């Protein structure tokens, strides 16, 4: 998961102001039938890496894009995902690399254009997983073992959500009828209300299954996906929820987690974040920027490392599937006071 860098590592907000170069220096700006290109653009993002040398972390990406576009590309770090949206709205940044909720807000508040989606382990979305230590209650069949390829380890699944002996896919929605077996007073471990996989999508799934999530269950607050799994592992809760597959985060301290914690259901898919751009950018610049960023991870071994270390991704894709982002906005609306 992406983390914010410490405030001491941030570039000054004033650095977001665009700097000028001689107009017309870029060959691209003279493209026939296009609007004139700006002399520079700024990307705002929340990196997954931590460290003091921010310029070194951002430089390979911005240098690559500058070379590909023929204009200056600057990179700045936002304190959190919401700040990327505000930077775009204030025209302090024209490109944002951010999470799904912020993409939705940028699109709906500032008419931003979604151009790319994040790819992690070959997927642009993921399920929240329902975990239990009581498979006799929640599983209609015997749990089977399937390989969670990201960690190269076998995990236990039931209700037909994975095929025995195959690589697990983590694709939902599946097995959600089993949520109706949650009895009054059942202890259910839930993460913070801002967590899509640990709270929001599970709450919606349980409510769709007829569960009174306010009064019909005993909510057990936990922090983080690892603790959601451990709550079930340690019998502090009978059911918990986390991203697919959060059991991999506790293998060192709980090597038998796949025996004690069974995945019995997948929610509908939760979208990864992506890249959005301001409507102020010319269409031909957006097109070239989209292509350049889409091809970045495959441009060199260094680029692949930068992608993973800087923003925790394996790739970007131009298959944006905006309907997933729009659906996420509907989910978010349920939890806004």
Can you describe this structure in just a few lines?
With 337 residues, this protein is of the alpha/beta class. Helix content is 31%, strand content 20%.
Describe the structure.
By secondary structure, the protein is α/β, with parallel strands linked by helices. It folds into two domains: 7-122 and 272-334, 3-Layer(aba) Sandwich (D-Maltodextrin-Binding Protein, domain 2); 125-270, D-Maltodextrin-Binding Protein, domain 2 (3-Layer(aba) Sandwich), CATH 3.40.190. The protein is built from ten helices and 15 strands. The chain has a six-stranded mixed sheet with strand order 2-1-3-14-4-15, sandwiched between helices. A five-stranded mixed sheet has the order 10-9-11-6-12. β1, α1 (54-69) and β2 (72-77) form a beta-alpha-beta unit. The longest helix has 16 residues, at 54-69. It starts with 39 loop residues before the first strand and ends with a helix. Pfam families: Phosphonate-bd. Belongs to the phosphate/phosphite/phosphonate binding protein family. It comes from Gulosibacter sediminis.
Blueprint of the fold:
Elements: E1 40-45, H1 54-69, E2 72-77, H2 81-89, E3 95-98, H3 100-110, E4 113-119, E5 125-126, E6 128-132, H4 135-138, E7 144-148, E8 153-157, E9 186-190, H5 196-208, E10 217-221, H6 225-233, E11 239-243, H7 257-260, E12 262-266, E13 270-271, E14 274-277, H8 283-296, H9 301-311, E15 315-317, H10 322-334
Helix pairs in contact: 1-8, 1-9, 2-3, 3-10
